[in-house]
Amino acid sequence: MYLFTPRFILADDPLSVKISENGWAWLVCGEKLIVWKIGQMPISKFSVCKEFQLPPCDLPYVADLVALSHPDEYSSLQSVSVMAASRQGVICYWPNMTHEESCTEIALDFGNDWKCLTAVSGGGFILASQKNQLLRLTPDGSGKVSFRPVQQGQGMLSGLGRRVSSLFGILTPAADVVLSSVLWDVENECFYTLTNSSLNKWEVDETSERHIFSWDLNRSMKGDLGDSIWGDDENYEATKSTINMKYLDLQLSKEGLVILTAAWSHADSPCLIYYILTTLQDKGCHISDEIRVEVTEYCPPYQTEELPCQRFLIPDFASPAAYLYTYDLVFACCTGTGRASLPQEKLILNMPGDGILGAGSFTGLPVLFCRNSGLVVARPKESVSMLPENIEDSLALAASESDARQPFERAEMEAQEDKTKMLKTAFVMYCRKDIIGAQNMLEEIFPDSFDTGPDSDLDMAVAQISLDLINDYPACDPRWAESVPSDLSSFSNTSLLLLHQLEDKMKAHYCLMEFLRDVELLSRLETVLVRGIPMATRLLLCEHAEKLSAAIVLKNHHTKLPEVVNAAINCALSKRNEGIPQNLTPADIFFREVSQIDTAFDCLLEEEEQFLEENHPHSVEWAQMVISINNILKDMLHAAVHHRHNKSSFYKFQEETEQEPEYIPWTASSGPSGVRCVILRQTDIALNKVYPQVDTNLRNALLEQLVVLIDFYLDGYVCQLKSVDRPSQQERYNKLDLEYTQKRSHLLTQLLSLGQYQLTASLAEKYCDFDILIQLCEQTDNQTRLQRYLNQFADQNFSDFLFRWYMEKGKRGKLLSPPVSQHANLASFLQSHEHLSWLHEINVQNFEKAYRTLLNLANMETRYFAKKKTLLSLSKLSAFASDLPDDHLQEKMEDLTAQERYLLHQETLPMELVNKKQFNIETMPVLTALQLIHLYISDDNIKANEYDFKKALDLLEFVEKEEGLEAPTNIESLKLEIFCQAIQRDNWSFDAKDDPIEAAKETVLIKVIKKLMDEGVQLKYYLPEVKDLLKSEYLVTLRSNSYFEFLLQAIYEHYVKLQS
Known about the structure:
By secondary structure, the chain is an alpha+beta fold. 45% of the residues lie in helices and 16% in strands. It contains 38 helices and 29 strands. It has a four-stranded antiparallel β-sheet with strand order 1-2-3-4, with no helix packed on it. A four-stranded antiparallel β-sheet has the order 5-6-7-8, with no helix packed on it. Helix 5 runs antiparallel to helix 6, helix 18 packs antiparallel against helix 19 and helix 30 runs antiparallel to helix 32. About 5% of the residues have low confidence.
């Protein structure tokens, strides 16, 4: 739509403009009146602009005292008349616009301050004064103007002077009536006036007026308006007397008459002006009792009696859209009568020297006349921005500080700050539905070929924008510009505004995430440095939303427990060395910087500890303080963790990478002031300090709260563990898992020790603490619960854990008597515990497997001889009890008998030898065949006889099996040693005259040879050679005795010959 604005130089004189619905506009500048048609007239190719000269006047002319009268929109210039009035009552009338010089002037000697002039039916006009006096001005065909007071109820002619009032016979009205606005309803030919106390209506025809009603605004409407703003305040009754209201303007909509009202209370701190749109239904002779009140979001601070906004527009009769305006601002809102509420938005004229000189409507749109731009149509945005208005303004302002308006003119953008600002600009464009523009800008800043990586420009820019959003300064909040008193308890409206600011930040955060996803930046994000360690950028974005959720919860608790939360806020700000400006509260500062919301945790505990120290344990408030702190902590953590888990998909993209660093949630931060430490400290305070001092009800409340806190504590570890659960970080995973297991056990053991079985079970089941679950079942002797866990956690090897627990605790009876359903699991578990598996095998009558298990155990047993012997015996018994075929059984028995025969050699060691070697019969180790041979033939076996040496010779076969010797000479050398030791047992000092055989028959050697012969051993092949014996180092002393050699030769010859 083209709006014609005449070209003229605006002088220094006061300026005012008015725009009518039928397309005419006029401007008053000093003593000049300029009238023009907006757009082209239907009967002319050219736009019309006329200038009229006004007579000199002491007070400046205003556009409100100018009116145009014309039959209809298509009237020719000849049928359009113009009337202008001065404030002092000088009337100028031009019968038609074609003759600017043809003017009629009259003077009204009523001594009033005239306020506005309105064209009505029949070419007439109504002039209204500041004190609500009305005159009907009627021109005739010759251009002469007559006037008379509008007929009305008592009091409407006040201010005309006693002489004139008396002339009409009407009493003088109250002097405090002040006119605010007038309205002419063309369709119904009704004229309304809005004063400081009433709404009045007349029906007007071409020659007369009839007063219909005067409706008392204060009696009928003031209470409803006050309730809509202050009704929820605790001190509302006391506040009522401090409430001020001013009725400002009147407009017409399809739903009825709409009144703009300003309301404020000096009891508020800060004192804000609330602008209210009230819709009334005119039923003809009266106003309906049904009143619709809409409190707008435009709430400027109260400064002077001269209110910043006193006018508004409803440009489209059928629409609920309304526009409030001041000299430098337009605020779009709605009357609240439509089906859906329209978004409220604010437009500020930022250009130097610009300002709104007047306003009106044309073709259903609001039209403004600005000092710099002329006529401007305030079109609604084609697509309303998704961002809350104050945050969008902040982002747009931040972006505009750079050269972001011409992003494509710069060939290179190396500065990270520039890229961040330009990304903000693209984000705002996206929110305003300019998707193509946003994508083009992003392609320029971060093209697809852009090399991303850890701490890239893209990651840093996204992280910074997200941080700026949650820490955004509430620029539209007047409390950041106005001083506040030190008494925080009176800020009833402060809480509401702070809460809305936090909610707006959350909306903005969601908009940012949709933007990153839709423009495919989310999938390109990698990592940034957070708290000194790398962190996935997407998880940082989630953290920001979690902190916003926690901040909203804390703000709600701030309303319920102001003293507690305020103390913690002051503590946090003190630790940050953050000063509090005179015009802001600590809560304003603290809740503005959402990224630091976690500092509240440690400060809440500090306040709690100080309170417990300073107050008596038996006071009512003592335990209640801990209950309150617990509630705040758990509610904040719940909000954060709930967002993390429920919105996790919002921060993920399809192609997940395994290269993300370890994730430590802010709710699992370590260090003295970290959230983990806070939860542990709070648990210790509650259980060790408060729990013993309180009654059962408070104990139950405390424990239920602690279970929730411990839940969040353990959840943080689970998130951290999941992030390192990959082969490349197995060492880190194992270390962290050990730490987690120890902390979990410590916390749950405390609950278990208090007999809180159900609460303990709830956490142990959720976090799979099998040790605690088993302890719980043991303490309560609840086998049903244990069986449930065996089924519930079957896929997590709960049965193995249970069996191992029984083994470690020495509860082998329970280990070996599980339910039948667990026999298979126990058998599987015992495969790596053969020392117990044979018991289970016997229990289930699997004797063949028990035989094999016992035999394997016996073969591996080297530590205890007695145990080896027992295992072999049990193995033999199991074999007999098994279903082995006879031939197989016989084979097994022969093997077992051979092993028993070997053990018999150790079992029959001479007791003197055993004692001398300091062997304990019960703990004696299993000796090798070589060890046994040396024991039998050693000098320590003082009483060694032929039986001992024969056993030594028998053991040679086991040495061969035991050692696996390949060279037979080793066995022969052992045999040589045994015979040498047998020879040495005698002195061989016989008389040479004696029979050698008879003389040596009592030697150990002869007795050994005889035993060998008794067993059928072929001496010829078994006995060592005489020459080998004589060469042996063991017989050095006998080697020089020639008679000894003779004896050996004779003995060998004799006994070998006996066998032949």
